[in-house]
Amino acid sequence: MKEPTIRAHKANPKLPRYCWEIDENLPLDRFISYAVMRLREGGIETFESCDGGRGHSSPEPMVRFWGNPGMGFRAFSVATDYGLPASDIRRYWTVEDGELVGPSWEMTFARRRLVRLQLQAERGGLIK
Questions:
Q1: Domain chopping of the chain, boundaries
Q2: From the centroid of its chain, how far is CA 93?
Q3: Distance of alpha carbon 88 from alpha carbon 43, whole angstroms
Q4: CA-CA distances (angstroms) from residue 115 to 13, 30, 40, 64, 103?
Q5: Is 30 helix (H, G, I), strand (E, B) or coil?
Q6: Predicted confidence (pLDDT) per residue in 81-106, tens digit
Q7: What pLDDT, on a 0 to 100 scale, did the predictor assign at position 24?
Q8: Nearest to 35, CA basis, from 104, 119, 91
Q9: Chain centre distance of CA 44
């Protein structure tokens, strides 16, 4: 069998079960999983996330999602309702094979506040 080109996290007993529910081959990073869960519960169609930092695909915690021009406002509203520490929201395009693709949305978060919120959610049983 051919080895996958993208490596998933090694099984980590500290990862909440929710991290594995969206895609068991590519689990969510622990410290972005509460934000992803709440955004998805609020109807935001996420497709990429990272809890940020050295060795990660993003220097800061972020969630990317699909949507029309108003979806950023909706995502911000959901984030605010759940106390998620959003720091930036932007629309972006990527260049694939020389052509623009998009736009998509990206929301970034204040790392320390997000980690604190994640730990509170885990202790409170809000994420398992």
A1: 18-123
A2: 18
A3: 19
A4: 18, 9, 19, 18, 29
A5: helix
A6: 999 999 999 999 999 999 999 999 99
A7: 73
A8: 119
A9: 11
Question: Does the structure show a pLDDT above 80 at 5?
Answer: no
Element (H, E) at 77: helix 71-81
- pLDDT of 113 above 90: yes
Compare 16 and 4 and report the one with higher pLDDT: 16
pLDDT band at 56 (very low <50, low <70, confident <90, very high): confident
16: preceding bond cis by omega (within 30 degrees): no
Q: What is the pTM of this model?
A: 0.83
Characterise 26 by phi-psi region: left (phi > 0), alpha (psi -120 to 50), beta (else).
beta
In this structure, CATH architecture of domain 18-123: Roll (3.10)
Asked if 72 and 38 touch (Cβ cutoff 8 Å), the reply is: no
As a dihedral over the C-alpha atoms of residue 60, residue 62, residue 36, residue 5, rounded to 10 degrees, the angle is: -90
Distance CA 3, CA 33 (A): 26
Residue 49 has pLDDT above 60, yes or no: yes
Whose tokens are 């529910």? That residue is 21
Residue 74: strand, helix, or coil: helix
